[in-house]
């Protein structure tokens, strides 16, 4: 199988012809549905949640979300794919948007996020300006902010190699996520499936029965004592900025002792 | 785009993300459509916790609807009709075509055939 992300960027590759082929291929439909159900199993959500579907394509995954009783917003960079979703009369909302430019929703919007066969595209450098590291950073930071505290995300993807897995895991960790990789059918070259399983903030109650997490993203060790008051304030401010709060900008007076006021 | 979504979407321009003015967007020239959906009481109860009521009022006024109460209804004590009304407003009312403008940077986003276009030129992304 040739990898589509090696041929052209997604908004070009999934033109009308390719997206129509993709959407109406019963084998693709079946595999997408199976992986969506698996992602939902890992998410272990209560009913009637508000879910973001990243790289929703023609919303084969969204249809499963609707069947499972969730409301959802799907985003995709391919207008042709979203056109197919409109033809399918899906119930969720559709956004024409580039995940690498960020998730355009306010802090705490979603209970959970899923992504099926999409985030490997973030690692592409299709144009001179495209910087995979920057795109991954922007994606994970804004995804983190858009999830409620304790919100969860499961992203099934097709990594090119261990380097790509490491890069993606590292980017997620730097953005504040906990979690790791779940690999289904690791013994099968054809059916092996990779799921990036993430929690935003406090540990969510993921359904990790019978799975081993590889490359576990451990929380950064708490630094005590060895950072200055100024660094502490800067770190706290950065955290609050990441969460979308308004924070006073840093200056030479940040963290300085003030003169007593009378 | 459902009215529900207007209560969560914010300007995608990177330099706007730290501004409190990037949400809610200002809506103009909107054509609305109604889509029947099965009443989902649990979802309304779940999502009302997250709804920013003043932002919802701002958007409904933008699109010419002044029927919502000033105060956010108390989901625990209201009767079912209020929940049904909220379902109608949030989930069954869709913007088919229209424009959204960021109150911070004035960037204009188009909604065409229910789909908002959030693709940004490279210098804004
Ligand atoms: Zn803006």
UniProtKB/TrEMBL annotation, chain A:
Family: Belongs to the class I-like SAM-binding methyltransferase superfamily. BUD23/WBSCR22 family.
GO molecular function, one term: rRNA (guanine) methyltransferase activity
A single BP term in Gene Ontology: rRNA (guanine-N7)-methylation
Superkingdom of origin: Eukaryota
Domain 18S rRNA (guanine(1575)-N(7))-methyltransferase Bud23 C-terminal residues, every copy: 211-260
Gene3D superfamilies assigned: Vaccinia Virus protein VP39
Primary location: cytoplasm
A Gene Ontology cellular-component term: cytoplasm
PANTHER family documented for this protein: 18S RRNA (GUANINE-N(7))-METHYLTRANSFERASE-RELATED (PTHR12734:SF0), METHYLTRANSFERASE-RELATED (PTHR12734)
Transmembrane parts of this sequence: none
Keywords: Cytoplasm, Methyltransferase, Nucleus, S-adenosyl-L-methionine, Transferase
Species: Starmerella bacillaris (Yeast)
Organismal lineage: Eukaryota, Fungi, Dikarya, Ascomycota, Saccharomycotina
Region Disordered, annotated ranges: 218-262
UniProt biased composition (Basic residues): 232-244
Signal sequence annotation: none
Localisation: Cytoplasm; Nucleus
Protein name: 18S rRNA (Guanine1575-N7)-methyltransferase
Domain Methyltransferase type positions: 52-155
TrEMBL record, chain B:
Protein name per the record: Multifunctional methyltransferase subunit trm112
Principal subcellular localization: cytoplasm
GO cellular component, one term: cytoplasm
Subcellular location: Cytoplasm; Nucleus
Protein's organism: Starmerella bacillaris
Pfam families in the record: Trm112p
Keywords: Cytoplasm, Nucleus
Molecular-function GO terms, alphabetical: protein heterodimerization activity
GO BP annotations listed: rRNA (guanine-N7)-methylation; tRNA methylation
Top-rank taxon, per record: Eukaryota
Family: Belongs to the TRM112 family.
